[in-house]
Structure to design on (544 residues):
């Protein structure tokens, strides 16, 4: 029987604590769209997207209306485009044509982002992979809704340092190519290690080759709900703290599970996974940093932050796993800087540095995310940062990522504004010492010893 | 049965229930249960209704009830019951 206090609690979460379903992401395989020439490939891609995702946005809106819960984003992820274009693309410009086709389709379908302008080069790059990577700066400059990702390593394969070095240059080139808009291209470009095939969150979403033809994945959120729950138990011991986070994560995830099953049923598409993530937005009260403060830190970055984040991440997973039949994606707490007002405040207060964020990425779900750095940061330093994050992911058998924006013409003390969900960010200092001799070595870092489990 | 939960939050005034029930009756929506409580000085009412024989699409009911709420200075929400059942029950 439905109980009035539970109804009030649910609606309080939605109305006062920013509980929402962050994204319904339809994963679509484009492998069967590969043709011998670019125009034919683009035609096939467009036809398939329009056919399968035609009612995605409407379905999301209908479900939001039925249950009275916002479904913030309706998105699409596709097969890594380096594979789709491998048979027909002979130049970076050819790949950019596919990017334009995807962007046009995304606009017509009404989805706000389409992910999968990607290459998975954990062990090495094919010629097509390299062409796609070299096309990224142009592709992100001439499109609006395309997100790009490159996976440069995994626990099983090690780290492709040639790809890491190239991505240092590509991140810089993307920043330069979109310099009139605070280098926003870099906000849609992420470099990953151990990238999941079923991630519904941008910018790293792509529809991996292990997936079926089409699938629906859902990303839940709700940092404000967790913070509110913790506010009710001030000074509680760790057992109570953890139990409270776990119970809250369970409730949040149950809503995601309901929405995912409903979306799958209405779209006639298999349900893939729920991504159990605490994804902040720049809105007040929708902050992972605020949870860390509620746990007892003056600002994120204070000593104890890594332990508090580890605890938070683990309890979110423990509560969420029980609530859903399939979990996947990134699943954990996100710690972007520009998308979380509490993180921005911590940087401005001098509490949070890139080095501390790097330590935090060892225990949370992704990595260095939405961090603005000076525009004159060398490509080698960016490659070094990517290599560090990839090493953390590789050794700890987890996903890590770098989404860093070397903002052209700006330096420490400046602020950049990307707008919307991407937020705004203070430019953070990067260690100024040189890593170019390390980065310019050729080849790959071998897989760690604990990856050999056969 | 299409179980739907209607919640009404706001300042208690004469005729809230009458107005909502008139709308529901006029649109073929059956009231199954009503409960109410006061939270932080605000009137909270929950109705469980069945919209299986409703003469209007669900989005229309949501919009029209919200409109009645606006007229009366109340917040009226209308949600399918599964969201509450799923969130609080394994």
């Amino acid at each position: 029987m439905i109980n009035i206090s539970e109804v009030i609690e649910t609606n309080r979460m939605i109305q006062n604590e920013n509980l929402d379903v962050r994204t319904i992401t339809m994963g679509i395989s484009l492998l069967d769209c590969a043709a011998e020439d670019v125009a034919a490939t683009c035609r096939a891609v467009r036809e398939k997207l329009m056919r399968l995702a035609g009612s995605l946005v409407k379905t999301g809106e209908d479900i939001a209306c039925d249950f009275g819960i916002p479904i913030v984003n309706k998105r699409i992820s596709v097969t890594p485009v380096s594979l789709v274009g491998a048979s027909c693309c002979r130049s970076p410009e050819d790949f950019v044509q596919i990017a334009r086709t995807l962007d046009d389709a995304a606009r017509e379908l009404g989805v706000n982002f389409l992910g999968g302008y990607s290459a998975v080069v954990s062990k090495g790059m094919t010629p097509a992979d390299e062409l796609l990577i070299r096309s990224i700066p142009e592709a992100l400059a001439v499109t609006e809704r395309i997100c790009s990702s490159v996976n440069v390593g995994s626990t099983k394969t090690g780290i492709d340092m040639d790809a890491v070095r190239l991505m240092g240059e590509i991140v810089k080139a993307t920043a330069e190519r979109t310099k009139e808009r605070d280098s926003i291209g870099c906000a849609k470009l992420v470099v990953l290690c151990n990238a999941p095939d079923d991630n519904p969150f941008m910018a790293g979403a792509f529809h991996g080759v292990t997936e079926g033809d089409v699938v629906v994945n859902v990303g839940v959120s709700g940092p404000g709900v967790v913070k509110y729950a913790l506010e009710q138990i001030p000074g509680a011991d760790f057992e109570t703290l953890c139990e409270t986070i776990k119970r809250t994560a369970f409730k949040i995830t149950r809503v995601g599970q309901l929405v995912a099953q409903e979306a799958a049923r209405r779209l006639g598409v298999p349900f893939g996974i729920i991504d159990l993530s605490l994804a902040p937005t720049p809105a007040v009260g929708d902050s992972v940093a605020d949870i860390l403060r509620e746990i007892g830190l003056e600002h994120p970055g204070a000593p104890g932050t890594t332990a508090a984040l580890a605890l938070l991440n683990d309890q979110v997973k423990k509560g969420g796993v029980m609530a859903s039949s399939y979990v996947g994606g990134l699943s954990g707490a996100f710690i972007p800087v520009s998308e979380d007002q509490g993180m921005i405040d911590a940087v401005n207060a001098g509490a949070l540095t890139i080095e501390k964020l790097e330590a935090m990425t060892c225990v949370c779900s992704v990595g260095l995310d939405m961090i603005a750095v000076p525009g004159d940061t060398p490509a080698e330093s960016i490659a070094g940062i990517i290599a560090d994050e990839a090493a953390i992911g590789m050794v700890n058998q987890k996903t890590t990522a770098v989404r860093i924006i070397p903002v052209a013409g700006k330096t420490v003390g400046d602020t950049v504004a990307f707008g919307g969900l991407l937020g705004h960010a203070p430019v953070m200092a990067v260690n100024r010492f040189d890593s170019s001799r390390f980065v310019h070595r050729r080849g790959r870092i071998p897989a760690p010893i604990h990856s050999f489990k056969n | 049965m299409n179980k739907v939960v209607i919640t009404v939050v706001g300042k208690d005034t004469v005729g809230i229930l009458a107005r909502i029930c008139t709308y529901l009756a006029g649109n073929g929506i059956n009231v199954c249960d009503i409960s109410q409580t006061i939270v932080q000085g605000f009137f909270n009412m929950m109705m469980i209704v069945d919209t299986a024989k409703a003469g209007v699409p669900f989005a229309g009911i949501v919009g029209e009830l919200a409109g009645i709420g606006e007229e009366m200075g109340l917040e009226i929400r209308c949600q399918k019951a599964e969201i509450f059942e799923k969130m609080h029950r394994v």
Notes: The first helix of chain A runs from residue 4 to 16. Chain A touches chain B through 22 residues (CB under 8 Å).
